[in-house]
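@channel anyone free to eyeball this complex?
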Amino acid sequence: MDLISNMMLGLQTALSPETLMFCFIGVTVGTFVGVLPGVGALAAISLALPMTYYLDPTSALIMLAGIFYGTQYGGSTASILLNLPGSASSAVACLDGNPMAKQGRAGIALFVTTIASFVGSTFAIVLVIAFAPVIAEMAIKFSSVEYFSVMLLGLVAASTLSGGSPLKGLAMVVFGLIFGLVGIDINSGQERFSFGVLQLSEGFTLVAMAMGLFGVAEILGNVGRPKGDVLVKAKDLSFRSMLPSRAEWRSMVKPAARGSAIGSVVGALPGTGPSIASFMAYAVEKRVAKDPSRFGKGAIEGITAPEAANNASVQAAFIPTLSLGVPGDAVMAVMLGAMMIHGIVPGPLFLTDHPTMFWGLIMSFWIGNLLLLVLNIPLIGIWVRMLSIPYSILYPAILVFVCIGVYSVNNNAFDVYMVMMFGVLGYFMRMFQFPAAPMLLGFILGPMMEEHFRRALLLSRGDFWVFIERPISLTFLLLTLVFLAMSAKTVLAHMSRRSAG
Amino acid sequence: MSGSINKAETAAALVVVAEGVIVIAVGWSYPMGTVARMGPGYVPVLLGGALALIGVGLVFEVLRSDPTRLAFSPRAFIALMSGLVAFAVLVERAGLVPAIWALVFLSVMGEKPVRIKNAVGISIGMSLIGVFVFIKGLGVPLSIFWW
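replying in thread with the prediction:
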C-alpha cells in the first residue's frame, strides 16, 4: 500500500544514524529547556535555529521539532516539583501535580505525566499521518484568495485567543505584519521602512526578532526574582516509587483519551496552541468528574488530561503547518521560517516535492517520543538535579548563546543590536501585557500574506468580491468574523465591568 | 477603581495609535498604485490604519482599567543592556573571548549580590564552548582574540 511504503521511506530516513542523532539532541535539549523555568520552547528553538544552518534541512527540521515536543515533556517536571511551570503550557500541571508532590507522590506524578504525554503524542501522530496528506491534496487547488483568507483566519484566531485583551493581541499581530514589511518590496524594488539602514534592506532577521522577544525579554523579566525550593531529592526517586498503583492506572485511561482528543483538535486549529489545549482539558475533566472537589488537591486526572492534551496539540499543530504552510502558533511559524531558510517552500506541494523529508519528519516523531519516554522515566533524576541550577548561572550563559547565535546568522554585529532592541521591546510589551507570540506570527506570515493579497486582487482586477464568491475563502472569512465578534464581546465586557464597579 | 484614569496603560495604547499614524505617514510616501496594481505603499497604509484603529479601541478599553503594577528593575535592565552592547562592540574588534567575558561580567551585575566567582566560571565555560563549538566546530568566522 502507498501509505505503508511512505511510512517505510520515512522510517528509513528517521533511522539513519545522522537524523537519529539530531532527533536525540533535539528531544534532550527540549526536555532540558522544558524542565528549566524561565526558558520556553520558542527561546530554545530560536537559539537552535542558527545552528541548523549547518545541517541538511531534514535533520534541521527533525531537531527543531524534537525541541518543541521535548519541552512539553519536561515542562511538567518543574510544575510538579517547584510549583513553577517549566513552560507556559504546563502551568496547569501545577494545580494537581504540586499537591501530589507535597503528599510525597512526586514520583507517581512524574511518571503519570510522562505516560500521558506519550499517549497524547502517539494519538496525534496518527492523526497527522491520516489528515496531513488529505488536506494537502485538497489545498493544491488553493489560489492566492484562499491562502490569504486562511492566513487571516490564523492570525485573528491566534491573537484573539491568546488570553488577555484580544485588542492587544490584534495590535501585536498588525505590528508584526508591519515589521514584516521592512526591506525591499519584491514587486517594485522599493525600499520600505529601512530608513537608509543598509542592513535592513533585506528585512529584520527572524532569529534576532525571536531571540529578542522571547530570549532576552524573558531574561530581563526574570533576573532577580526568587525561586522556590525543589520538593524532592533526585536520589529519593526510585523507579518503584514512581510506579502508580493498579487503581491509579485505571483512573488514567479515560482522562488520557479525552485529553488526547481535545489536544488534537485544539492543536490542529489555526491559532490555538498547547496552553489553551491543556487548560481546556483540565476544565473538561473537572466538569465530568464525580467529585470535582478533589481537583487542586492532587487528583491524578488533573495532571493526566492536560499533559496528554498539550502533547497532542503540539503534534497536531504540524497538520496545518505541513499541509497548508499555515502555522497555528508562533513556534510553528518559526519552524516554517526554518524551512524557508533552507529553501523549502512550505505548502501543499511540500509533501509531494519532498516526500522523504515529510515522512522522515513524521516517523521521527515516533522515535523522538520513545526516546523521551526513556529520558523522562529512568533518567528523571538528571532533570531533577538540573532544577537546582540557579538562574544566576543560567542567564549569563544563555545571553552568550543568544549573542553568538544571532551573530552567526549573517556574521554581523548589527543583529546583536537588533536582538537588544527586540529584547527591550519585548520586555515593555510583557510589562503592559501585550503578547509577543502574535507579533512573531505576523512577522513571518506578513510577506506571504501581502504577496497573496496583491496577487488575488491583481487577478480579479481589483475586485474585492473575489474573497467572498469563493466558498472556501468565504468559510474562512466567516470564521474570522466569528472570532472578531467573540473578542468584541470580551472587550465590551471589560469596559462595562469597570464602569459598573 | 472607577473614576481614575489608568495612565500607564492609556499611554501604552496611545503609543499604539501613534505607531499606526507614523506607519500611514511613511507608507504614504511610497507609490500607492491602484487596487488591481498595488504599489509598495498600499499595504503599509492599510496596516497602519488597522493599527491606529485598534489603538483607539484599546484606549477606550484600558482608560478606566484597574491600575497596573509595573515591576521594572533598572539594575537588571542596565546591566543586561550594557552587556549586549559590549558584546556587539567587542566581538569584531577584540575577538570572541573578550566579548564573552565582557557580556558575562556585565550581565551578572544585574543581580545582587554580585557573584564574581560565578562570572569567572561561566566566562571560562562559555569561552571554551564559543571557541570549540562555534569557531572550530561550526566555522563561525570570528577571531578568538584581537591578535
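from a first look: The first strand of chain A starts at residue 183 and ends at 184.
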